[in-house]
Amino acid sequence: MKQLPSLTELRAWMTANPDATRRDIARAFGIKGAAKIDLKALLRELEGEGVASRRRASGGALPPVTVLEVLGPDADGDLFARPIEWRGQGAAPRVILLAPKDIGAGDRVLAKCEAIRGPDYDYQAKIIRKIGANPQRILGLFRTGAEGGRVMPIDKGADRDWMVGPHDVNGAQDGELVLAEPMGRARFGPPRAHVVERLGDPTAPKAVSLIAIHQHGIRDAFDDAVVAEADSAQPMPLGKRLDLRDVPLMTIDPWDARDHDDALFAEKRGDGFTLWVAIADVAAYVRPGSELDREARKRGNSTYFPDRVVPMLPDTLSGDLCSLHEGVDRPCIALEMQIDAEGNKTDHKFHRAMMRSAASLTYEQAQAADDGRLDAQTEPLAGPLGDLFACYRALTRARERRAPLEIDLPERQIVLSDEGRVTSVAFKERFDAHKLVEECMVLANVAAAETLREKGRPLLYRVHEEPSPDKLEGLRQVARETGLVLAKGQVLHTRHLNRLLAQAEGTEFDEMINMATLRSMTQAYYAPQNFGHFGLALREYAHFTSPIRRYADLIVHRALISAHGWGDDGLSPWDVEHLEDTAKAISEAERRSMTAERDTNDRYLAAFLAERVGAEFAGRISGVARFGVFVKLDETGADGLVPIRSIGAEYFRHDPDAQSLTGERTGITISMGQQVLVKLAEAEPITGGLMLELLEVDGDALPVARGGPARGGPKRKAAKAKHKSAKLARKSRRKG
């Protein structure tokens, strides 16, 4: 790293480059990392001389979700707005509002912005909602009546219908799924509502996630008091925070991410690295005992569906003030770590800070930069990105020594059209950029747990216990059936399971062994006591890195605030007293969200495949039960059932230990992991169920049982009696 320029050198350079930004200055003089804070002090001196105006690391851009003030319509009737919070260079950008409804000059709105330059505007914005407005929404079936109709809520707890007048139907047809808003209770009769959105066929894909939300009790509407509290929040001042705004921290997320919890920066230091992990300071906005806090605790986490997100916090916070958007000042809790050449964390320190993201990158962008393909956004950050990936590769050496569980299952992504229909089911690409972020987050979570344990502060640990003996024995049985080995008679470590996974890698049983290993694991949960994390091979672990979407992380943030004496927004006495209850509540909320997400994916896949009933698909047997065989389809990852009654014309013996079915007459054995060809017989979008017909097993057609059908009647009973007699004889011989 070069030394800072003198004031004379800096003055001369800036006189020759009057339009340069602070980032341009840093690049010109080779100034990196924390040294940019010293550069900022020099620039302040030049500002006093009139040589420099205030320069920003970015020329200024609006976050994708931001609060706007409506300016009013122009002569053509178009409605324009300006951002409430603007710290970029020059005048604030002009924003045109798309399809505004009931919005006027002076109103404040939360909007999704897109940079599209027009003749007299810089952005287009779609309104999410008006600030201060929080209309109740009713999801239900519309039924036509003599005068309008009524909405019958699908919520199980609903005890009344809502009447809809003829002028409030909004074109809704009988049997459609609709969203409605209340209009107030009439003096006589049931309450009234008006239809605001037609969702169409309740079995259609667009309705799937809404049905799951209500079916599983996912809280998807915020009370007025919660929204009002969020809307009253203001951007945080620097105050006593450490100023990291000139450190080029960057976020790396999926391309469609609306909120950014975490940002990263690494700098080479001798043989090792200084690694910064900055996490959104949600605790500064969501204080103990507030309406926001109570609602976040009830939700426990955000819930993610293919077509929507049900956030833990209102959009004003989750999409704007708490999100680490590019070029915008945001409060954070920053972790500074020292990493040696072998990837070991040798020291760490937490700070309450203010940051400004240098770039919001996608995983694809970050990976392309590491591969040498820089774009306009990553080219100025080539140095920090190079150091970040070099630090990650050092961390992988430490990870290999720790040997966490290495389950490798392909992740599929449901791709929807604008209308909410499934257009494809694609495999998610997994890059080193994904692993980089994951490894840095794991390290930060460990540092949070270590710090709070050392300071004797209460917290919520993320606990993952080792598999039960019964589940391990089931995994051993699956391994034996495929000719692989999981040793017995030793204390189980993740390296033993990794050895099994390595045996299966590249074989036809690869995915099956990975799936069976995953199923043998216990469910992770939150607890005030530390029982370790088996899967990650860590003695202590806490969630710290995602406070926008997980309440557990917010508790850990508050514990860190209390431990460091940073303010009065740390853990409250109530938080500490009810830590056990909180752990139980958010663990249950997490399981509820996972079930809702899985059910929704199943329904989307069933709707996608409903048009292909009668088609043939390759798959692999993923489970065997007395009543049939479960098959995972290769193309989509969807799970379907082959009922036992549809497999051949013979009786099948079920062996639960070996997870197999054996034909009484043909001797065919159907077991876990076999490659099969099936025909789709039924696809039910409402339930998400798929019924399949088995055609081939391991490339061979099913054999035909001779001697007539063996189902029911005396022949089936005789077969069962024969099997029972043979079993008794074997037991008698063993006793003898």
TrEMBL record:
Its main location: cytoplasm. 3'-5' exoribonuclease that releases 5'-nucleoside monophosphates and is involved in maturation of structured RNAs. This is Ribonuclease R. HAMAP family: RNase_R. Belongs to the RNR ribonuclease family. RNase R subfamily. CDD domains: S1_RNase_R (cd04471). InterPro entries: CSD2, NA-bd_OB-fold, RNase_II/R, RNase_II/R_CS, RNase_II/RNase_R, RNase_R, RNR_Ribonuclease, S1_domain. Residues 706-736 are annotated as: Disordered. Residues 614-695 form the S1 motif domain. It is found in: Cytoplasm. It catalyses: Exonucleolytic cleavage in the 3'- to 5'-direction to yield nucleoside 5'-phosphates. Its EC number is 3.1.13.1. NCBIfam families: 3_prime_RNase (TIGR00358), RNase_R (TIGR02063). It comes from Roseinatronobacter domitianus. Gene3D superfamilies: Nucleic acid-binding proteins. Residues 713-736 have a biased composition (Basic residues). Keywords: Cytoplasm, Exonuclease, Hydrolase, Nuclease, RNA-binding. It comes from the Bacteria. Pfam families: CSD2, RNB, S1. It is an enzyme of class 3 (hydrolase). The lineage of its organism: Bacteria, Pseudomonadati, Pseudomonadota, Alphaproteobacteria, Rhodobacterales. PANTHER family: DIS3-LIKE EXONUCLEASE 2, RIBONUCLEASE.
